[in-house]
Write a structure and sequence with these properties.
Length: about 200
């Protein structure tokens, strides 16, 4: 079992998956540190792993996740892990945990059931809020981008997955439109566009 840092209690009725059940290869040793490592040398709540061969802008994607969290009013210490995996790894995750066939572009694994627009209160001295994990397959993102700019498509996937961790969904037309508008606002504020 992968050691996890203690979670503070939120009003939540769902079971919280242990990350080791989702991906036993993921290095989660940073989750037990008081100050998790960041790729830019500072203290950040966003940890990025690249477990595949394609180059990824780890600092850029970390910054984009932090931009979403800041836009929604989450504290800078909020914990999110972003993991870039190959199609084989994503296929295993998709089949084993979502019952899907083949690879998908992104999977969000929330650790808390959150409501869009409602930031949980973190008590002084309590561990930071741990939102969950994002798995992205750059191979699948590149295929889906087709004629579109792969950097914009990757940015959309990072933002989209982060909003899923924050409780946003697209189960119906109204919620899909609201989610797309929030994604568009954040992407545009970062000089990106949403397809």
């Amino acid at each position: 079992s992968v050691p996890r840092c203690p979670r503070r209690s939120l009003s939540s009725t769902h079971s919280v998956p242990e990350l080791s059940r989702i991906d036993p290869e993921l290095d989660t040793s940073h989750l037990d540190d008081d100050e998790p490592p960041s790729i830019d040398g500072g203290v950040t709540g966003v940890h990025v792993e690249n477990l595949q061969d394609l180059p990824v802008d780890m600092a850029g994607w970390s910054h984009l996740v932090r931009a979403v969290l800041a836009a929604e009013g989450y504290p800078a210490t909020t914990q999110v892990t972003v993991v870039f995996v190959d199609d084989d790894h994503m296929t295993e995750l998709n089949q084993g945990h979502l019952g899907g066939a083949g690879p998908t572009d992104v999977i969000s694994v929330p650790l808390e059931r959150l409501t869009p627009g409602h930031v949980p209160v973190v008590d002084a001295g309590a561990p930071p809020l741990m939102l969950g994990d994002i798995f992205i397959s750059p191979e699948t993102v590149a295929r889906k981008a087709a004629d579109d700019d792969i950097e914009n498509e990757m940015a959309l996937m990072v933002v989209h997955a982060t909003y899923h961790l924050l409780g946003w969904d697209h189960a119906d037309d109204a919620s899909a439109l609201a989610m797309e508008e929030r994604e568009r606002e954040v992407l545009e504020s970062m000089g990106r566009r949403r397809r």
